[in-house]
Amino acid sequence: xxxxxxxxxxxxxxxxxxxxxxxxxxxxxxxxxxxxxxxxxxxxxxxxxxxxxxxxxxxxxxxxxxxxxxxxxxxxxxxxxxxxxxxxxxxxxxxxxxxxxxxxxxxxxxxxxxxxxxxxxxxxxxxxxxxxxxxxxxxxxxxxxxxxxxxxxxxxxxxxxxxxxxxxxxxxxxxxxxxxxxxxxxxxxxxxxxxxxxxxxxxxxxxxxxxxxxxxxxxxxxxxxxxxxxxxxxxxxxxxxxxxxxxxxxxxxxxxxxxxxxxxxxxxxxxxxxxxxxxxxxxxxxxxxxxxxxxxxxxxxxxxxxxxxxxxxxxxxxxxxxxxxxxxxxxxxxxxxxxxxxxxxxxxxxxxxxxxxx
Length: 358
Description:
This protein is mainly beta. It has 1 helix and 28 strands. The protein is globular.
């Protein structure tokens, strides 16, 4: 066989091999694209006995810690193992937030407690007005937003040193908020049925996006920052009002569970989540910036109305409380006394930390 014939045959065989490899790759990608997403389910539950009420739960993804304000303290857990990592005392708070750069944590309480997120040691307390409820870390300005249903609706705190930068009148009672990291904070106003837009540089409200024509009582809020889409999670009726973060144009509405009080968005899976008091977690799939569908309703536990996001494991964490079994309940104390650690509002109860994943 001459040299040219040999080279031709080798080239032919190589070409056939390459085509075969491309066909296998195309089949593999087609199979993956056609494969349905794995359903979400409860993958872990941890129970801890304690006292007092709960509200918001917060994941510090950089330091891998989970904060659960309860009663007069903030419980701290390892985000990966959910084992106790300590407590922050004298903090009767509704929520918590951490600045990952300064490593300073803050409570939504009066006064606000500021702590070192590495050591959990209190740095100082900060006097604020109103009745602190929700809380948010705003990354563009490295500030903490403390929200209140009473004036002032927002107290803005410098995360680096705990000084008060200013206050904001939102014109209504704020619930959950979200930052796009590009100069805007969005806040749903539960009693006004709209979403307020705040300029983080001027600390002024620049717009109110009305959603009252579709639903009332927005209490949860999620944001797709890349595509500028807001998910206002309402209670009456139980509806997700999906709207443009740029101009407030309503894109669509979808049904959710009853009693939403928390929302989040996962940019990896392009899914929004709404946690509800009725013991469900609604999963909304964003198939495009203008197309959305309810992908799944996950059964959690009654009362698990707030949630947070573990970005490392792509998991949602929720919290609720429940009475312990009768056998685990201490005997009724004598009149005017209470057993050690018991709450005057009804005694100890179980804190449930619920992890939802695929």
